[in-house]
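Deviation from plan, reported transparently: nicotinamide-adenine-dinucleotide complex.
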Amino acid sequence: MKVAFYSSKKYDIDSFGNANNNTGIELNFLESRLEKSTVPLAAGHDGVCIFVNDSCDADVLEGLANLGVKCVALRCAGFNNVDLQAAERLGIEISRVPAYSPEAVAEFATGMIMTVVRKYHKAYSRVREGNFLLDGLLGFNLFQKTIGIIGTGKIGLLTGKILAKGFECNVIAYDLYPSKQAGEYGIRYVDTLEELLRQSDIISLHCPLTDGTKHMINDTTLGQMKKGVILINTSRGALIDTTALIKALKSGHLGAVGLDVYEKESAYFFADSSTKIIYDDNFARLLSFYNVFVSGHQAFLTVEALKKIADTTLRNLQDCANGKKSPNLVERK
Ligand code: NAD
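Because the crystal trials were delayed, the predicted structure below was used instead.
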């Protein structure tokens, strides 16, 4: 089976190169992002492999189907960038990597909390300049603080566990489908999202991006949060309405924000944008706040996660090549 591997980076080439032994799969690594104009690059391939910011809308899927592409393998967990209805209509199989290393993201989210609370990033640059003043670096203890976890799937549960068991935080959670494991991890559910927002000192988002969760953090929900709250998003950018976030930052309502994702990240993330003008004024404004820490969708990036992503994606592609139903198919509910 020949597979066009879009948006490839060096770490993908290394991890998939190491994992691709005797699979019968030939990977053609392409730097281009999948979008309508780059569909022709998939000519002569049976499958394509994509990541979080590739576009797999109905137009793209139609183009791929016309080229004879049978499957799209997402090398990530989220599938919000795929039109599942169109894929079903066109008979294209969509697979993903449902759980590659929830620890990678949960540990990163915890580190992001520590970074914005204790200001590691500011200390790092200050010390490199020979400035050892501590003014402006005042933090607070996490011990006994109330942390609100929104979405207690694989990553949210682990983040809550680290904070409850490791830091002895009071971890509360909200999920449409509460998990039975939460109690043993020291996580307590509240009945409504509003209750979580009102009680939490720190809020961490861990639910998927769906029609129901898009802009769940907006003017109203930000208004329900405590003054000085810390908001962390390692999930998907569009969970947050950026305009409302900026308003809440400007008014001083938010204490600090940590973002590994941004709703329009595909224009800048996963590329060296240091010699580009940032035309997205909301993004530029976010980067300008002293109390906002942004990383470029990095939470998944560990050796362990990359290995699991490569192994599972290759298995998904083999299943497609062999006409076998992969356990990791994404189907329309
Ligand atoms: P998961 O499917 O295991 O869990 C998601 C949870 O969110 C589920 O328990 C679900 O019931 C809950 N949920 C859905 N809608 C909700 C709502 N309206 N309110 C509250 N809870 C709701 O997912 P996961 O593997 O834990 O991943 C969580 C998120 O992290 C996903 O968005 C994924 O795309 C993202 N992610 C980011 C990175 C990164 O590198 N930054 C890496 C992996 C995953």
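The longest strand covers residues 254-259. We consider this an acceptable substitute for the interim report.
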